[in-house]
């Protein structure tokens, strides 16, 4: 009897603990009728802050003075005291890759953020190999010969020595180059005579043998298609955790520009997570050409947590692998010769011939998709604009909102031409912060017009800024600070002072302009009556903060549809996914 009583007490304790956890895991909610008071409310619909905002049933009802808003809302509305904080529209990330970021979260960190030399990285890899690595493939992420001086590529012999039997892949920070050991190459079916995929290459030595290098997106995708997928529920769980990271950074909407990452159905996975109204951010998705159905077309409802909006292409590659299709060769420097192994006169290749891209652009254009194209160099930009001119003459679409992404060395003339053709521009200004000290060794004097976002604004573009995470860390305030100061992380002179933005331009780039680029400006991007109450609460008003202090502003919370977002890992939806993942792993 004592034993039975003991079991009963243990059972009750377990049930009680589970009940308490479930209650704790339930997210905080507020009434559907609230007023924000006691701080600055920056609507982005006007030049100055207002005192109060009334939200009802997830929508913004009114902004104005405290007296006006209180009078209109009545005594039943709950008052949320800001205590001097600032409310703004939630930030909108125009270009990111959440699934890739989620999956790389468990990779071995070999980045320039964590290491200063090749010796440190090789030691970190060796130490990791000595640990418990249950996954079928070993992945390292962040190899960066631009950020870390003297970082020679790993040889196939080094990769095989680190992992003789298990597939092992190192991905560069830019994710446009990888290094694979012999086991990984065998698993992927890559041999000496395997043809290079379009726009990519498998590195080979003078003797024709594989070196382990895998160059550009198409070749990396060919390699990683052999990577065993995680259980679907576990992939969903770590993706949901990643979405919460965006919310913690102040984002309420993200643009997924290419659903890259090893999963059976990346777009379907994002859509399934968005069926839960508590998902941490909204996602506007641009799929890869092979992931989309031209017959069904894009989403027409732009007010949900998931919108399938467009298609993503790559016209050239990364400046840091020699893949950017510049109009003039890379500089002939020690960095380009010895670290990047580029011959004198090297110019990055284009991934499409003009006729081929006219065909590709045309078929998605006719189906109603927004088309986003990765373009770093001038030749890449020019080919896209030439193709667009042909397609738009055949089938005009005044408000198509096709996009050029990154735009490292887009020229003033191309900026003007893009404007005339209705193309949107999104800039990856983090290049200046993280790589600015090395850029002159890549592009010489051209660095003064690198990421010319100021010129884009002057020519009338509603340009955006992005961090291309996982290429650089999530941080909208850091991104804005860089666009305003244009000073590299390691110090030095301002890069392209004429391309600096004002605080208002930087804020618009990550709110109203980004909403427009993603086609959701009717519902988000500013705090105006009738729009969704998607907002971020900040410790300080960015408009009243010196640019050099912008990144020090704290994100105190994000709200979607008038409710605070739950960013905890141990939330109730995450608990359900964890239990499902456990069942799947046991079943295996």
Summarize the structure.
The chain has 588 residues and is α/β, with parallel strands linked by helices.
Describe this structure in words.
Helices cover 34% and strands 19% of the residues. By secondary structure, the protein is α/β, with parallel strands linked by helices. It has a domain at 98-224: Diaminopimelate Epimerase, Chain A, domain 1, CATH 3.10.310. The strands form four sheets. It has an eight-stranded parallel β-sheet.
Features:
eight-stranded parallel beta sheet, 588 residues, six-stranded mixed beta sheet, 34% helix, single chain, disordered N terminus, alpha/beta, Diaminopimelate Epimerase, Chain A, domain 1, 19% strand
Report the C-alpha radius of gyration, rounded.
Answer: 25 Å
Poorly predicted sequence stretches spanning 5 or more consecutive residues: 1-24
For this structure, the CATH topology of the domain at 98-224 is Diaminopimelate Epimerase, Chain A, domain 1
Average residue-wise pLDDT: 91
Topology:
Blueprint: H1 2-25, E1 33-37, E2 40-41, E3 52-56, E4 59-64, H2 66-73, E5 78-81, E6 86-89, E7 91-96, H3 98-104, E8 108-109, H4 118-129, E9 138-143, H5 156-162, E10 168-172, E11 177-180, H6 182-187, E12 201-204, E13 210-215, H7 217-224, H8 232-248, E14 251-257, H9 266-274, E15 282-287, E16 306-314, H10 334-339, H11 354-366, E17 370-375, H12 378-394, E18 403-406, H13 412-420, E19 424-427, H14 430-435, H15 439-443, H16 453-458, E20 464-465, H17 476-485, H18 503-509, H19 512-517, E21 535-538, E22 555-560, E23 563-564, H20 572-587
